[in-house]
Design brief:
Layout: H1 9-13, H2 37-72, H3 77-89, H4 94-101, H5 105-117, E1 121-125, E2 133-137, H6 139-160, H7 165-190
Antiparallel strand pairs: 1-2
Helix pairs in contact: 2-3, 4-5
Length: about 190
C-alpha cells in the first residue's frame, strides 16, 4: 500500500518510506507498526486531550462566527441555525424544528414568531394536512445571508487541500457521530 493510499500522511510528515513504500512509525521508527500497549494508551490519552482542547476552540470560534453573521442581519445564532435547517430540509412543522434543534416546543414557537416578524420565514398551510402549518423560508430574504458565507466556503475548500480524501472521509465520519451525540445532549437538556 502506498503512502498516498494511506492518506498521504507520510509524504506530509517528511518520513522516508522503505522499499515497500511503508513509512516508519513516527514515534519509534518501527516499520512493523507494533507499538507497546502502554505507549498506545498514553498516546491515545494525549490525542483525546488535544481533541477536546481543539474541539472547545473550534466550538468557540464557530459560535463567534455565526454570531457575527447573525448580528449583521439583526438575528441571533439560534435564529441563523434555524434558517440553515429550513434551507437544508425545506418547510418544517414547529414539531419538526423542535426535533432538529432540541429546543422545547414553547421556545420554537417564540423562535418562529421572531423569524416571521423579521421577514425571514412565513407560516403556510401544510400541503397534506390543512389543520397544520409548516414554516418556510422567504428565499429573497435568505439570499441576503449567502454573501456572508461565500468567503468562508472558499476558505474551507482551500483548507481541505491539506488533507487526503481518506482523511476527509474520517473527518466527515467523526463530525457526523459528534453531531448526533450533541443533538442527543441538547434534547436531554431541553427535557
Amino acid at each position: 500500500m502506498s503512502s498516498e493510499e494511506r492518506g498521504g500522511s507520510a509524504k506530509r510528515s517528511g518520513a522516508t518510506a522503505d522499499a515497500a513504500g511503508d513509512p516508519p512509525d513516527a514515534r519509534t521508527g518501527d516499520r512493523t507498526g507494533h507499538v507497546p500497549a502502554d505507549d498506545t494508551d498514553a498516546r491515545r490519552a494525549q490525542t483525546l486531550e488535544r481533541l477536546m482542547t481543539v474541539g472547545r476552540e473550534h466550538s468557540g470560534v464557530t459560535v463567534m462566527f455565526h454570531s457575527a453573521v447573525a448580528a449583521r442581519q439583526g438575528l441571533n445564532a439560534t435564529e441563523t441555525k434555524t434558517l440553515d435547517l429550513l434551507q437544508r430540509f425545506g418547510p418544517l412543522t414547529a414539531k419538526d424544528l423542535a426535533g432538529h434543534t432540541g429546543l422545547a416546543p414553547a421556545s420554537v414557537t417564540g423562535l418562529i414568531d421572531r423569524l416571521e416578524a423579521k421577514g425571514f420565514v412565513r407560516r403556510v398551510e401544510h400541503p397534506t394536512d390543512k389543520r397544520r402549518v409548516v414554516v418556510e423560508l422567504d428565499d429573497g430574504k435568505i439570499a441576503e445571508l449567502a454573501g456572508f458565507f461565500e468567503d468562508w466556503a472558499r476558505d474551507v475548500v482551500d483548507a481541505c487541500e491539506e488533507f487526503s480524501t481518506d482523511e476527509l472521509d474520517t473527518v466527515v465520519r467523526f463530525l457526523s457521530v459528534m453531531s448526533e451525540r450533541q443533538r442527543e445532549a441538547a434534547a436531554r437538556l431541553a427535557r
